[in-house]
Design a protein that fits this description.
about 10% strand; binds zinc ion; 7 helices; globular; mainly alpha; two-stranded antiparallel sheet; Jann2411-like fold
């Protein structure tokens, strides 16, 4: 099985953006500048989140939708193609950059504007996760109606649900349908 992608801060920020929308929470869309800034402070990425303002929310939602499409694409080739489209949209070229542990990695250069560095960084983190672990590790939760995106970081790489809660809901639903048929 492929390597488990490290949970670098930029990847966690991407997950925070993606998980701001969830059909099982009320309201379903909890994206706000305050929420992203809190995540930025927690992850040491305030240079990306502090410049964001309420006027950027429509573009942040659009970015969230585009990144979700990477997870929801039907097969690995479509995931790579979608990821490449988003990388092109958010970046003005690519640079080789030293990561904190000293290894070199490809990083998309941001487009101008307040969401530019944020968009390039979170998309770059997903691209690095894809090159490390393969796009088989990108998926959406199989428990209806959840469909939340997840990045499978298990060793075996056979995750189907976004979280323990959905895993248990799906198991209970399968049990109910078995006992109804019996
Ligand atoms: Zn789920």
């Amino acid at each position: 099985m492929s390597a488990v992608p490290p949970l670098e801060p930029a990847l966690r920020l991407a997950v925070a953006l993606l998980h701001s929308y969830w059909v099982l929470q009320d309201p379903v869309d909890q994206l706000s500048v305050a929420r992203l800034r809190a995540a930025g402070r927690e992850l040491g990425l305030t240079e990306l989140t502090e410049p964001l303002g309420d006027a950027d929310l429509p573009r942040l939602r659009e970015l969230r939708t585009r990144l979700y499409q990477v997870f929801a694409a039907p097969d690995p080739a479509a995931r790579v193609a979608t990821l490449n489209e988003v990388l092109t949209e958010v970046s003005a070229g690519t640079a080789v950059e030293a990561s904190p542990d000293g290894t070199l990695r490809l990083t998309p250069l941001p487009r101008p504007g307040p969401i530019g560095p944020f968009a390039a960084t979170v998309t770059g983190a997903l691209a690095r996760a894809a090159t490390t672990g393969g796009t088989d590790r990108f998926g959406v939760c199989a428990a209806d109606p959840c469909r939340a995106p997840y990045l499978d970081r298990t060793r075996a790489g056979r995750q189907r649900y976004c979280c323990e809660l959905c895993n248990n809901r799906a198991a209970a639903a399968a049990y109910r349908s078995r006992t109804r048929r019996a």
